[in-house]
Amino acid sequence: MLFSIDRSLKTSIQQQLRTKIVSSVIDGQLVPGALLPSTRSLSRQLGISRTTVVIVYESLVEDGFLIAADRSGFKVNPDYPAEPSSSGPVLNDAVVVNWPSRFAKRPGKQANISKPADWQSYPYPFVYGQPDPALFPLPAWRECSRQAMSELAMRDWSSDAIAQDDPLLVHEIKTKLLPRRGIFVSEDNILITAGAQNALYLIAAQLVEKGLKVGMEEPGYPDARNIFDLNGADIEPLPLDEEGALYTNGAAACSFLFVTPGHNAPTTIPMTEERRLEFISKARQFDQILIEDDYECEAGYLDRPLPALKSLDTEGRVIYVGSLSKSIFPGLRLGYIVGDRQLIDELRALRRLMMRHAPSNNQRTTSLFISQGHHDTYIRKLNRIYKARRLMMINALDKYLPGMRQGSNFGGTSFWLKGPDGSDSRVLAREALKNGIVIEPGFPHFLDPRKHLNYFRLGFSSIADKKIPEGIRELAALLKL
Amino acid sequence: MLFSIDRSLKTSIQQQLRTKIVSSVIDGQLVPGALLPSTRSLSRQLGISRTTVVIVYESLVEDGFLIAADRSGFKVNPDYPAEPSSSGPVLNDAVVVNWPSRFAKRPGKQANISKPADWQSYPYPFVYGQPDPALFPLPAWRECSRQAMSELAMRDWSSDAIAQDDPLLVHEIKTKLLPRRGIFVSEDNILITAGAQNALYLIAAQLVEKGLKVGMEEPGYPDARNIFDLNGADIEPLPLDEEGALYTNGAAACSFLFVTPGHNAPTTIPMTEERRLEFISKARQFDQILIEDDYECEAGYLDRPLPALKSLDTEGRVIYVGSLSKSIFPGLRLGYIVGDRQLIDELRALRRLMMRHAPSNNQRTTSLFISQGHHDTYIRKLNRIYKARRLMMINALDKYLPGMRQGSNFGGTSFWLKGPDGSDSRVLAREALKNGIVIEPGFPHFLDPRKHLNYFRLGFSSIADKKIPEGIRELAALLKL
Question: Residue A194 and residue A452: Cα distance in Å, rounded?
Fold first, then answer.
């Protein structure tokens, strides 16, 4: 029997049947002119209603896959485009071309954070940066998506906008998101990107050349380090103290300084106001550019967070990077850059070559999601949950892993822990996984990973409250082995 | 009055009112604790139903923007997060930083195709690559989007997939799209990109180094030339004859050859089978990599198109680039690369740094759109329309601009025209625009634009049938001036 229905699947019976018939026609299992089972017999065979079969058959007639045949039967449309010859060779990865010798770069060889692809299936997922999908305001997003897809709205955005962004989204960022961070700019100072990561990539590709020095926090965001490194930069580590990154002598020799002043990735330590003013004034003195990644700025739910470093910038020396993926859903891939108009113009031209623009349907849906207040509501909801969960984490950590967590008054969604000297977080992560606990080894955050194998990160955005004490207790038991 | 309703807008009254109240709360015009107009008075003032006002107020209570006050009034939630100081400086683009001296590249200075941003408002839009939004099967796309956004499906894709693609979309490409082009590969040979342009950018960033020679058709796709150029390549022009690009002596010295064998961009001339075999065998002889952009392959509605060049490749020397934006809607930005596994692995790592992945909601919606046959139905519908429109174009061109169009038996959505010697298509485009006619000057398609100012392109995917003869007649009149 060609068709079968799986009632355990989340897709509707109608959709399953339609998909199967379409596949059979396209891949030639049902040849042009072939008669389909009658609606009566198919409904009986599959144990589904005859109406469902009729609806599916008729929609396929309308779409040209089937035609109505004599006496209410249905046939595959004899005019259905004949299949191309399937005579091509099956590509085997023949070892003829020496690919590695042709690679201009080796991004695949860089150290980076990794987590199991199926982390959602583990009972204790202390992963970072993945909000719980169950908390997402799906009805509100759906409604915004529906509005964005109305026929008239679609005319606005279905075309390739070449180099332009959705003006509605730029407006929301300018009027609602940036003012909260103390940033007041015009539309021409804003560029939409495919996530904050893409923003950093664009900035590095546009500005960084082989041999230029880029300073960044140690520990710091590994993806940023990898991006600068890929573009040929020499990385200068800026050590952290309890006030944030230090402006060292080495910093003075850099062309660019990449910082996360809101709260350091990964330790979550915010940079104090005094330190920020030092960075701004030294950057002026040494004619440097500061790149500020204000990631997760919306999760500063403890002490009131300082405005962005960019808000202290009167010379256009700070390039500001923001993210919408983090605060909506990470798979969305939307972020933005705020900077000097000359820079934004050039980055726009570069983005045109790289991808033209972020998908316009998502830009429009997101602008509606923000303008109608759903983004705010969602953030407030998440912060209430994170605040409570953070306390549970503190209680469990102080009980089972005392002295290991590094302090910060930011809030956020993770803790940074220093394991016992000589311990190896790679081993710990492996053992933990066997026990259903997902943790992130911390060494990729360091320029010299080998000296920092004892650090690790515990995220709490995806783990259920009640799993926290249990998970931390189990983890502590593994550390004692 | 704070709120007003504009009945001429396409957004609903409810949505307009909600958006306005949210904005006023967020930007502090309505301060925490402020009393809102009563539902009765607001409905009277705005001339809308009281129920609408009640619905909006209540949804805002639910979302924490408002609270219910005494005697059925509504107030701004006094706990609404106090506004951050708006004390930051307004960023003026101070000429302090010498930005141009800091640019590692100047993408903004490259020659490229341009069209007026408001081309949709002109009566004769002979633009290329922008399908008519009125033809798009909006209900089918909406239904797929709805299915992709169901709660269960969303759990699959709302997380950041880091480096992975939606397996359902990869499956559809592998089983439905590639076999039609004679390509049979495994999932590991496929990488999803943010459009075909992004595919070319990734390939160039991964493989091209300063001083390497890249051959490409002359005329050819300007964005590809700009991408290779930006990565430091020396461009070697491959002249065209009626069989497609020529494999010249210069071609033999190249590391990479970029070709559009399906139909040359912009002339629409397909490469013959003999010529394809020559490229494959020479590439083997000189150990070269061929980059095949199979753009608009679905629009080969005249003679049956040849399978892709990739289908002749037994050594993994051909990197194949396909697009989904062209055949669904250009603003979607989805494409794919097919290549050797070693190359795909490295490109995946590079894409992880550049943007992680294409937005996962769009990947899922697109996979459903293909699997349920809507993609096929849409392409068949477009091709019927394009076929008829192409004949109208030929009739009008042969009547009013005889001898100017370059022949091709592919189909497609445009004509390439050679204007009179000495004519300047930039001047023609400018004059045409004044008369409501949008055309594309052809010179950016050439390595040396100055010698080819008389070429131009007329697209016919966005222009209404009945406008064609009139538009061409007017254009011809301008050319005779």
Answer: 32
Residues 6+ away with beta carbon under 8 Å from B467:
B123, B124
What pLDDT digit, counting tens, does each position of A338-369 carry? 999 999 999 999 999 999 999 999 999 999 99
pTM: 0.90
Q: Are residues B439 and B458 in the same domain?
A: yes
A204-256 pLDDT, tens digit each: 999 999 999 999 999 999 999 999 999 999 999 999 999 999 999 999 999 99
Which pLDDT belongs to residue B475? 96
Q: Which two tokens stand for residue B32?
A: 């925490």
Minimum Cα–Cα distance from B367: chain A residue: A19
pLDDT at A434 exceeding the cut of 80: yes
Dump the DSSP string for B333-345.
--EEEE--HHHHH
B217 token code pair: 């058709």
Tell me whether residue A87 is in a domain. Answer: no
> Tokens 């010697």 map to which residue?
B421
Choose between A69 and A395: higher pLDDT: A395
Question: Looking at chain B, which residue has its C-alpha nearest residue A183?
Answer: B88
Same domain as A301, residue A180: yes
The minimum CA-CA distance between A117 and chain B, rounded to whole Å, is: 8
Task: Please name the amino acid found at residue B305.
Answer: P
- A446-462: pLDDT as tens digits: 998 888 999 999 999 99
- B324 inside domain: yes
Is A423 found in the same domain as A322?
no
Distance (Å, whole) CA A479 – CA B285? 59
Shortest CB distance from A184 goes to which of B88, B155, B332? B88
Domain carrying residue B393 = 113-129+377-478
d(CA B308, CA B235): 24
Beta strands in B70-212 (DSSP E): 74-76, 124-125, 190-193
Distance in Å, alpha carbon of B175 to nearest chain A alpha carbon: 8
Residue from A356, A317, A348, A160 nearest B106 by CA: A348
Distance between CA B132 and CA B45 in Å, rounded? Answer: 41
- Number of structural domains found in chain A: 3
